[in-house]
Amino acid sequence: MMVLCLTYKNVVNCTILMCNDNVVSDTVNCARDLLSWHKILGHCNYDDVLKLDSVVDGMKVIGGIQKPADCNICVLGKMTQGRSRTPRCRSTAPLVLVHTDLAGPSEPISCEGFKYAVSFRDDYSGIMFVYFLKI
């Protein structure tokens, strides 16, 4: 077992490495393949992992510098949720759907002592009413 602490851009990342038959190690260094270092470093891109190999003591990339096939975790992390561009259905009659919002407490308090505001908006007509509250 070995603890590897790397500092990159003022961030310290410590990882416990279990060295076994698949890993070449000694008391100072631990060598792993590019994909393993990629996973250990929180899915850091492969080019940066290769740059770290030359500047970090105790880190050795073995097995060539060929970039492995796409990492499934990295592919999922780059996906975004698609948005529907179709407008939502609006209300078909007044006061069927009313949106409301409460804001406060606000500073400074008004001259009349109001700290809160509540708004009501009718989805069908778009009419909005705002009431101020002292509570």
Q: How would the blueprint of this fold be written?
A:
Elements: E1 2-8, E2 11-17, E3 24-25, E4 30-33, H1 34-40, H2 46-55, E5 59-62, H3 72-78, E6 98-103, E7 116-122, E8 128-133
Parallel strand pairs: 4-5
Antiparallel strand pairs: 1-2, 3-4, 6-7, 7-8
What keyword list fits this structure?
single chain, alpha+beta, three-stranded antiparallel β-sheet, 32% strand
Describe the fold and architecture.
There is one protein chain. The protein is built from three helices and eight strands, in the order E-E-E-E-H-H-E-H-E-E-E. The chain has helices spanning 34-40, 46-55, 72-78; strands at residues 2-8, 11-17, 24-25, 30-33, 59-62, 98-103, 116-122, 128-133. The chain starts with a strand and ends with a strand. A three-stranded mixed beta sheet has the order 3-4-5. A three-stranded antiparallel beta sheet has the order 6-7-8, with no helix packed on it. Strands 1-2 form a two-stranded antiparallel sheet. It folds into two domains: 2-78, no CATH class; 98-133, no CATH class. It is α+β, with helices and mostly antiparallel strands. The model is unreliable at 24-28 (pLDDT under 50).
